[in-house]
Amino acid sequence: MTAGKLIIISAPSGSGKSTIINEVIKDESLKLEFSISATTRPPRRGETDGVNYYFMTPDEFKAAIAADEFAEYQEVYEGRFYGTLKREIERINEEGKNVVLDIDVLGGINVKKMYGNHALAIFIKPPSIDILRHRLLSRGTDSIEEIERRVSKAEFELGYADQYDQQVVNDVLRVAIDETHDIIRDFVNQ
Ligand code: 5GP
To answer: Of 6, 115, 142, 190, which has the maximum CB count within 10 A?
Structure first.
């Protein structure tokens, strides 16, 4: 098995992406490790710097862009920047592991272009926009305005799904986990 591959996972917020990937990552034989992104958005309750994200001020983020420290970055929401640090990918590769990137569609498509067959891009879809809205509401972590922003973003993101190598519909969670697991296992064992 070759380590050092990249697995890109993109999905509209609330598609169950984190739950799915957190389950698959438990399979130690796949040697998967999350790339921790940098972001200018404030931490949510329970989030820790250096664990969920490297939380940066806008000035720190700009300085990292200027110093060419990002493999990719995007303004995912207005005024909210997210980026993959080159040193994070290097750190995981040096550990002999495969990198999991949980990044937005534009970042995902860019990384896929950069890494070609070395990267696998998976898009996780909600069964519908209505179901997505309900899931975001029941998660209870964001305001109504934030949820509506995420729903319109989701509609935009779904338009890019067919540019991904694989698409998984998260209707029944267990099925989506197994499907994603199979896709990733096939790729890392190639
Ligand atoms: P959240 O604020 O819910 O943690 O993340 C919002 C979005 O930012 C998600 O769609 C996530 O995939 C995306 N994101 C997180 N990190 C990165 C990154 O490093 N680069 C890009 N392009 N998107 C990211």
So the answer is: 6
Closest approach atom of ligand 1 to CA 38? 19
- Give the residue numbers spanning the domain of 144: 6-188
Output the pLDDT for position 77: 83
Both tokens of 56, joined, read: 């940066």
CA angle 101, 105, 106 (to 5 degrees): 105
Rama region for 168: left / alpha / beta (φ>0; ψ in -120 to 50; rest): beta
Nearest ligand 1 atom, CA 41:
2
65 in a structural domain: yes
- Whether 1 is covered by a domain: the verdict is no
Residue 123: per-residue pLDDT: 98
Rounded to the nearest whole angstrom, what is the distance from the C-alpha of residue 108 to the centroid of ligand 1? Answer: 10
SS3 51: coil
CB-CB contact of 7 with 122 (8 Å)? yes
Residue 14 pLDDT: 81
* 129 domain residue, yes or no: yes
Q: Is residue 184 part of a domain?
A: yes
Looking at ligand 1, which atom is closest to the CA of residue 17? 12
CATH, residue 52: 3.40.50.300
Give the chain's residues under pLDDT 70: 1-3
Q: How far is the CA of 51 from the centre of ligand 1 (A)?
A: 14
Give residue 15's pLDDT.
Answer: 87
Round to whole Å and give the CA distance between 30 and 1. Answer: 9
